[in-house]
Design a protein that fits this description.
single chain; mainly alpha
Amino acid sequence: MTSMLSKITSGLIRILCLIFIVGIIGTASLGFITDGKKFAILMIIGFAVFLGLFLLAAEKLSDFRHKWFWLCLIGLGLILRVAYAFTTNVEVLSDQLTCLDAAQMVAKGDYSWAESDPYFVRWAYQIPFVLYEGLILKLFGTIRALYVCNGIFSILTCLLIYLIAKEMFGSKTALITTAVFSCFPVFIFSISRLYNQIISGVFLLLAIYFFVKICKGSMFKEPRKGFLKVLLFSAVTGLFLGISNLFRTEAIIAVLAVECWFIYFFIVNAKKKMLGVMILRSLLCMAAVYACYKVVSVSTDAAVKLSGVSQYGIRNGCVYWFIVCGLDRETYGAYSRNYKYIVLEEPAQQRETFKKILKEFFGAGIPNLGKFFALKEAKMWGQFNECTAFNESWNVPKGVVLAFDAVNHGFYLLVTLLAAFSLRKKRFEPATAFLFIMFLGFSLSFMIKEISPRYRYTTIMLLMLLAANTIDYLSEKKPITSKISSWRGNHG
């Protein structure tokens, strides 16, 4: 019975993940149809470029010494990003402009915006991010410093991708994965945008790094002293998830993924003789993660109130807004003003309005719902114009921007295809299962909440780590690179 339940649970996770991955591949391939022949050709080139990088890395990087790789990655990567930060000239718009204006007031010692601006009264959870920006502006006195910090966080993202991949698959696979990830254009160009995902993503990866250490161990077979280490890693995971959530309030999805993994791991490894110990240890680890996550949130909320910055702490004054936007049929889940009135209502009235909107939405019938979610997925993953910041910065020809967007497109397809192969039963290890559970959590959230191409930031990092699983398999077998080497030998 336990074995059957284990197979059903594992199989269900893999099937659900496969559905979303096929959806991403399918909608991302719309570039062939929607963006014209030129974009299709460039996308194929982009796909080929990154495939070539994978193959080249698989054949050559293993011979490099680690110290030289680190010097190249940190040195060249940081120089490239800092140079871009000092030359970019992108107009700050929308929410980022609101937060930047408030940060400039913070730099001058003025915190009145926190209680006078309706935006921050309603969505006070943005206050930690504004305080961070205000601190940087106060220390360096220029917005360029924010871009440079984004560049540093971008490099830290690359380093954490390496550390996580190394923990899961070894240094060779980690080198290949990081080398390719560091070349991904959108993760370079995004530093000219004042996105909170850039900072939040670093702390999320730190949480993943420590949790992967738990996944790679044997939580239920560890002696008491060994289990204390597992419990400590659980607490550290919760701590970093809490910090990540201060900058972008989506870490709760990662928290739920962690808790679901403990349940999954318990089901897969359940044994009658150790049932009591397994239940107790699972509950202790789950409690440690959530408690530390919550401590960060509660303590920051209290600090904001006690310091006099805002009487509202870091609350979310309208939790329904992002969901009603995500269910808007006119925009297919993108930002919409159609339901702006819900923001102005009192909490009790918000709940009633939310129930009414849900009832109308799900009463549309299964065919209409299926069409809506399919088109929403296409809107989320079928748009690839993230490199427009490059054009805004230097006003380069449209063809160059199109080429960079096509390379991004090719990257998305390649990484997602590689991640799909990680669903194979033989490769579905505990750490891989955890990453897929988290991927599933973010994918499901995109089905109901507001969407934007920039929200793919976290998901792409997860897909890159999952792609490392397949890279590890290919680097062991080396079926393609061996043929290339053999062909060179015969035709050299």
